[in-house]
Fold this sequence. Notes:
82% of the residues lie in helices and 8% in strands. By secondary structure, it is mostly helical. It has a two-stranded antiparallel sheet with strand order 1-2. Strand 1 and strand 2 form a beta hairpin. Helix 1 runs antiparallel to helix 2.
Amino acid sequence: MSDKSIEEKRKALEKETMALQGLRKEQATLVENRQKLDSQLQENELVEKEFKLLKDGARIYKMIGPVLVPQDKAEATANVEKRLEYIRGETKRVEKRLEELSNEQQKLSMNAYRLQMEIQGVSKA
């Protein structure tokens, strides 16, 4: 193989490696987001359980800034349910993207490995 071909393969390998690094960085961010969503989910599920234990006439307060504001139980329950729905949806979206990233990383890794073997094969010859 010519020097030009080897250089093209090295550039392609570098490009694949950079793409892999970008995917790993995105994956780390998504894992961090997933952990935050899990934490929020647990917290809101706990609140939902606590609301179920309350009697209908119980007073519920919502903190808005430094002030506690009275809130209707039905409204507070609806807000928590909406939050839970949103968090679960976001969790599914993040998990789907993590799966896509895993597949992309696998493809890029295989391509990078193939290029590396081709370059080494040419260098030895």
